[in-house]
Every structure is written in C-alpha cells, then in structure tokens.
Predict the structure.
Amino acid sequence: MFFSRQVERAVREHRMFTHGDKILAALSGGKDSLALFRELAHQGYDVTGLHVDLGIKDFSVKARMIVEKFCQDLGAGLIVISLAESGLAIPRVKAAVKRPICSVCGKIKRYWFNKTALDKGYTVLATGHNLDDEAGRLLANALRWDTAYLSDQGPTLPAEAGFAAKVKPLYRLSEFETASYCFLRGVEYHMDACPYAKGAGFTFRKQLMQSLEQKSPGSKIGFYEGFLHKARPAFLALEQKNHEKLLPCLECGYPTSAGTCGVCRLKRTLAGQAKFNEYS
Ligand code: Q46
Ligand code: ZN
C-alpha cells in the first residue's frame, strides 16, 4: 500500500529507527498521530503512545477518550500527562501570557514529549507531522530567514545532551493521505479543531502551500525535499558556528540557556498568580 511504502521509505532513507528501538509516539487523537501509531505497530515496531491532556474543556476530554480507546483496541501501551495536574492547563496559560497561545502550547508539549522519552528510557520520539505541516513550517521559517529554525527543521533530529532523538515518519504524506488511511483502516479520530486554532498563522500557510500544490502538483514535496538536500546542510553549518551552549535547568534539568527553563518559569508565574487571586 502507498501509505506503508512512504513510511518505510522515510524510515529507511533517514535511518529513523530499527525494530530494536523503543519508540514513544505522541498521540494527540488527530488523524496523523493515530495513523502513524497504527502503521508503526502494524510494521512490527515496539511503540508506546504518549498523550498530553491539554486541559481544554470538551476538546481535551474528547481527545483523551479517543486516544485511550484507540490504544485499548490495539492492545498498546499509553502514557498520559495531564497539564492541569502540573498547573499548566492551556486555558490558564492563555489567560496569563501575552504571546500567541499556540507557540507556548507547542513549547509545553515538546517539553513533556522530551522529558517523558528521556525519563522512561525510550530511544526515539516519533510525531505525526505530515508533509503539509512540514512544508508550511518551512515556508514560515524561510519567510523570516530564521537560520536557527531552518537548521533544526528535518525529519530526524539526533539525540544530544538533554534531548531525545526525534523523528517524523509521515513527512512524505499529505493530510489528505493520512485522513484516507484512517478512513480505509477504520481508525476513529478527533475531528474537532482546537478552539484556539482559529486565526493561527500555520493554518494560513498550509492553505497557501495547498493552493500552490493544486496549480502545480508536486510543489510541496519538491520544496521540502529540495530544502533537505540542497539548503539544510548550509544552515546546519552556519548554526554550528553560532551554537549557543545549553545547560540543565536549575529546577527540572531540561536544557536551557537561561538558568531556569521556560516551562519552570511559566509554572512559577502561574503559581504566583494563583496565590495573588487567593489573597485579593
Ligand atoms: S492544541 Fe495547542 Fe494546537 Fe490548540 S493551542 Fe494551538 S498549538 S491549536 S496543534
Ligand atoms: Zn525547568
């Protein structure tokens, strides 16, 4: 099947993992992450799910139910992290920070993905990013010529001090293809959009790339693969020179350049606000 062959090709060409690896796969409940997990399990990989419950009313309750049922039906292991339990439920964070919530939410999720993979001894962390996600992100990074992000963008990131190895085995497949896979395999996924996704820049850039694809089929994969082979090595070389030294966070050990990492600082801010509300 086309879908399986594209995953096999991505894994092989980018040496993502082998059948000896312990893979932790992030499961949001959406079509991409569930398709990825099902396909890896089907190909005989040792894969466990990780769901970060964002604490967004109704939306997160449904997402978690879908993921739990999916793993139960498949007989697969699942780890659930509740942001509400660590005081970082996304609606609370949104009320407290001035930055766009999606960039903070992304940071918090990445923090927990990485921490869980390292703490529990997984050798690689897999996410369900597809070609539309990757091409849209590349466009955003190129529009800003953000050399640090451009050097970091790719289907594999090797493990380094404090960071687990990360892979994106669906990077050759479009959103339409992952949705079709779920439909054909009877995978029930979360179709509701996150209430905070409206107006997010990434949606617009994906639509832009999709218009290009319609006018000129093959644009998305050509743009992304061309970047990987022809441009990324130059950005990597450039950033190796400017590489900022990271040290473990004083509170949680996560790599940071600021003494205390962003997530620990955020926790502190929210705890301070809660105390203020209690006394005011
Ligand atoms: S969950 Fe979080 Fe997304 Fe919702 S707040 Fe934005 S980043 S849109 S993938
Ligand atoms: Zn920290």
Observations:
- The chain has a mean pLDDT of 93.
